[in-house]
Specification:
By secondary structure, this protein is an alpha/beta fold. Helix content is 40%, strand content 23%.
Length: 235
């Protein structure tokens, strides 16, 4: 769209939340950039001086380049085709954004880049599914979740995870895997936790049907903790 004669870009709630976690003045890399809307917004707004944008397929990269050129930012946003973080220069970036993929896929991309195990980097991750699997990967690999926020867009609720390397495996229990640092006082987070609790209750019912009373009690207990307003939240 245009404002005052100049092209501007607007982000949906999901990408706006990702953008809010990017540190001002740092250099981000948007992995799986698709149309490059997020790096365009970050550079255009002045939040960052430059950015990298990559995608595993050539067609999205061509689309990204076209959009970047339309906003006059070809000299400030570097694009290329790459599988995950393969071609991201570690010395040139600070914040890594991976949004719109499954949690398992995000974890796989992160695991292939050992250079991320450095407190210099910030990970901004928006899983479309299996957020619990992604959180468990982060905890096991020594990444602390420093903040997390639920966001609603087009009737669906997502979570955005911000993590930084702590240097050692993070102590966690199964509750932490499902709740992360979501603040249940936030209505979007509460709805997301309710949804996860419903999944765990279904697992508990499946255990009960098989005669696994211990498993049924375990998953029912986890579901109750996720929806217990008196249980400490992530914030």
């Amino acid at each position: 769209m245009e404002a005052n004669g100049a092209k501007t870009i607007e982000l949906g709630a999901r990408l706006r939340t990702c953008a809010s976690f990017v540190r001002e003045g740092r250099i981000p890399a948007d992995v799986g950039t698709d149309h490059a809307y997020l790096p365009i917004w970050l550079v255009q707004s002045g939040a960052v001086p430059k950015a990298y944008a990559s995608d595993v397929n050539e067609e999205p990269v061509r689309s990204a380049r076209s959009n970047i050129a339309a906003f006059g930012l070809s000299e400030k946003i570097i694009t290329f085709t790459a599988d995950g973080l393969d071609r991201i220069p570690p010395e040139a970036v600070d914040d890594i954004i991976i949004a719109g993929m499954g949690g398992d896929n995000i974890a796989m991309i992160l695991s292939a880049a050992e250079w991320l195990q450095n407190p210099r980097y910030r990970l901004i991750l928006q899983p479309m599914s299996r957020a619990s699997r992604l959180r468990e990967y982060l905890y096991r690999r020594g990444f602390a979740i420093v903040k997390e926020e639920a966001v609603c867009e087009a009737g669906r609720i997502y979570t955005v995870i911000c993590a930084e390397y702590a240097g050692k495996e993070i102590a966690y229990d199964e509750y932490d895997v499902y709740a992360g640092r979501l603040n249940r006082a936030d209505p979007h987070a509460a709805a997301l936790l309710q949804k996860q609790a419903g999944i765990l209750r279904s697992v508990a019912e499946g255990c009960a049907a098989k005669g696994d009373t211990a498993g049924a009690a375990h998953y029912a207990g986890l579901a109750a903790r996720l929806t217990d307003s008196d249980y400490p939240s992530g914030d």
